[in-house]
Specification:
The protein is an all-beta fold. The protein has one domain: Elongation Factor Tu (Ef-tu), domain 3 (Beta Barrel), CATH 2.40.30.70.
Length: about 140
């Protein structure tokens, strides 16, 4: 089965392949970026508000290849790719939790940026801590 996805928008950030962002969005709360929603999806932003946290699903469009097992950044324990947050994955799907700083038409300014400029956004969902379990793992 083949799955085809189309972006709903693109990220505009200061980060490039040569100027990499922090490894996790939570480590970069002082920086902002803009998600430009494609015109055909603008109506889907109804209900998004300043101060709200969102889950941004995106494509690691600059990632090349993957290994099923590797040593995660800063760790000396071999793990499977599904037990890590590596951008090098079989389907290259990333997820960041960001705070909405502002919304102006199709432009959503977000805080907590770990995405490269021109990153394709696949979906945006509201984040609700009440619907997410507490971390009981290591």
């Amino acid at each position: 089965m083949e799955i085809i996805m189309r972006p709903v928008g693109y990220v505009h950030s200061e980060y490039t392949v040569d100027n990499r962002p922090p490894r996790q969005s939570i480590l970069n709360l002082e920086k902002t970026a803009v998600i430009e929603i494609l015109e055909e999806f603008q109506e889907a932003t109804l209900g998004l508000e300043k101060g709200m946290h969102i889950v941004v699903l995106f494509n690691f469009h600059k990632s090349t290849g993957y290994k099923l097992r590797h040593f995660p950044h800063g760790q000396d324990v071999l793990k499977g790719v599904f037990a890590s947050r590596s951008p090098n994955r079989p389907n290259g799907i990333g997820m960041s939790i960001c705070e909405i700083e502002d919304i102006n038409g199709r432009m959503i300014t977000i805080r907590g940026v770990d995405m490269l400029d021109e990153t394709p956004v696949l979906d945006i969902k509201p984040y609700s801590p009440k619907l997410n379990p507490e971390n009981r793992g290591a």
